[in-house]
């Protein structure tokens, strides 16, 4: 079972720096007096297994002198004296702390431990799911960015087309204005020629007008003539 787990989770275990050796200072020589050393093991999932290769500490009541303490959450266990090789402790969670402490009295060879990280099938499942979720989220982000890019490309294309249309419209307007101006100028010159041609008509009209004027003048004259006799009456 463990072999099966290890083969599945080999990648995880390797990455987790599994099979970690923990030794007292100066091992295999005697550890120093008044020495303290702490090892912290932390992961997001799985459990830790602590096994003994060699274990020689000063023995004392309740391990008050030299000891190895394993802490998990708020609970702690102390080990001291001489112990045979084999499993010493298996954690319940993915986080443990090992502490070695020596006092000013007797020195010993110390200990050599092996700490392994184990993951359960549930952990592997969780990890794979998490990885899948992360990959999906990444893909989603990529899709989102691509979507944005497509949107911006579409937008740019639209803006470009609109700009092109606007420029075309302006060019058309300018062309028409220039054309109309040219036509007007041509028409103006034609009009001038017409004017020259039509001058007699206008002249006739004015002659007629002057004629009527003169008629009125003569009328006025007649009036004057009419008035004249009254003046002489
Ligand atoms: C340790 O404590 C945390 C909260 O402080 C809790 O979620 C977790 O389950 C505990 N682990 C164990 C192994 O008791
Ligand atoms: C160790 O600590 C004790 C008390 O704290 C002290 O009396 C002793 O001299 C110390 N020993 C060494 C080697 O530092
Ligand atoms: C991907 O995005 C959509 C909406 O943008 C969201 O509903 C969905 O949950 C996302 N999927 C993942 C795996 O993040």
What's this, in brief?
This protein is of the alpha+beta class and 233 residues long. The chain has three helices and nine strands, in the order ααβββββββββα.
What does this structure look like?
It is a single chain. This protein is an alpha+beta fold. It folds into 2 domains: 118 residues, Jelly Rolls (Sandwich); 67 residues. It is built from 3 helices and 9 strands, in the order H-H-E-E-E-E-E-E-E-E-E-H. Strands 1, 3, 6, 7 and 9 form a 5-stranded antiparallel beta sheet that branches. It has a 4-stranded antiparallel beta sheet with strand order 2-8-4-5, with no helix packed on it. The chain is rod-shaped and about 130 Å long. It starts with a helix and ends with a helix. The site of one 2-acetamido-2-deoxy-beta-D-glucopyranose (NAG) has 4 residues, from loops.
Largest sheet: 5 strands, antiparallel
Q: Tell me, what is the CATH class of the largest domain?
A: Mainly Beta
N-C termini distance: 158 Å
Which regions contain 5 or more consecutive residues with pLDDT less than 50?
1-15, 202-210, 227-233
- Alpha carbon gyration radius: 56 Å
CATH homologous superfamily annotation of the largest domain: Spermadhesin, CUB domain
Helix proportion: 40-55%
Order of helices and strands: HHEEEEEEEEEH
CATH topology of the largest domain: Jelly Rolls
Molecular shape: rod-shaped
The CATH architecture designation of the largest domain is Sandwich
Tally of distinct domains = 2
Bound molecules: 2-acetamido-2-deoxy-beta-D-glucopyranose
Total DSSP helices: 3
